[in-house]
Model the fold of this input.
Amino acid sequence: MDRYVYLDNNGTTRMADEVVSFIHDNDALYGNASSMHSIGRQASSGIDWARGEIASLIDGDKSGVVFTSGASESNNTVFSIFRDLIDEGEKRDRIVTTTVEHPATIETVKYLKAKGYRIDLCPVDRIGRVILSEMEKLIGDDTALVSVMLGNNETGTIQPVREIAAMAHAKGAYMHTDATQAIGKIPVSVKDLDVDYLSLSGHKFYGPKGVGVLYARPGVPLAPFVHGGHQEGGMRAGTYNNQAIFGIGKAAELARTSIKEEHDRLWAMREALRKGIEERIPDVVINGSNDESLCLPGTLNVSFPRAEGESILLYLDLEGIEVSTGSACATGSLEPSYVLLASGLPVEIAHGSVRFSFGRYNTMEDVDYVLEKLPPIIERIRNMSTRKA
Done:
């Protein structure tokens, strides 16, 4: 192969060089952060620093930052809190979310619904954005929690979370957003969004895997979700993973100081690829929005009718280009993306979708390489499909 191009940054990112160096330089801080001796106090100080960096990144209170293993755990924790409240007889017994959430939410609410809990899914429009008039109908006086992701992992569509939060609060409900894909790409402020809970994962913005955050606005319902020691204010027991927490702190610091530059760079590459594909390949469908204010800057989802997404992925892989056909958490399924189907895309077109997601280590040369290799691949696959027909 001529070149290696990684365009699956929505699936996971490579740790930033600065994060790797920071973790290595702090490797001596192996002490238990709950211990009173010197090395323990140093570890505790590092964790406190990381908590402050996360709080600064999302414009929240440091006391609201709870470290978890990632956004999947954070999302599940929020739903568990409200499941328990409902079980205890809380009159508000309904949860509202959308048809295009990440599997960490979709599968959780499927489970809850199967157990008899009241769950409503709000539909979306053609670009995968929540239909606000429908959301307003669903949120009522019996709603306990509304959960809507900030940016979609497959299409990049940015949801109107602030407007939905206002609807939720007007009815006395709490608001949660999974902001995992948005962190480091667009400004995220829990105060501006007016959300009560926010989830994020370190590995989506150049931090380590296996570490994330649940942000809970001080004063909202919160119960211990791992029982045992006193860690995280008694909310999540267990010895701290010092290095991972230091790493997500450093990643947060990098994201906070470079977000405008990174946004503009990612959007430029995304648009160059989109325009190049539309110019060089006939009959393509862009999924999501091309409006910069409505789309995460590094995400481009394209459907190629008469070409299977899995075939495109494998042919690109042979050329050293790594992409995705949807959510990394749904890999293994041959079914078309439920996100695209919920957005009204026909099944046969959804089957031919590919997600290109740019990151910190991509360049315009990567775009040029994809535009060199992709058109003949699509032509080859379409010709094979025609012959089979």
Summary: The chain has two domains: 5-13+259-388, 61-236. The longest strand covers residues 94-98. The chain has a mean pLDDT of 94.
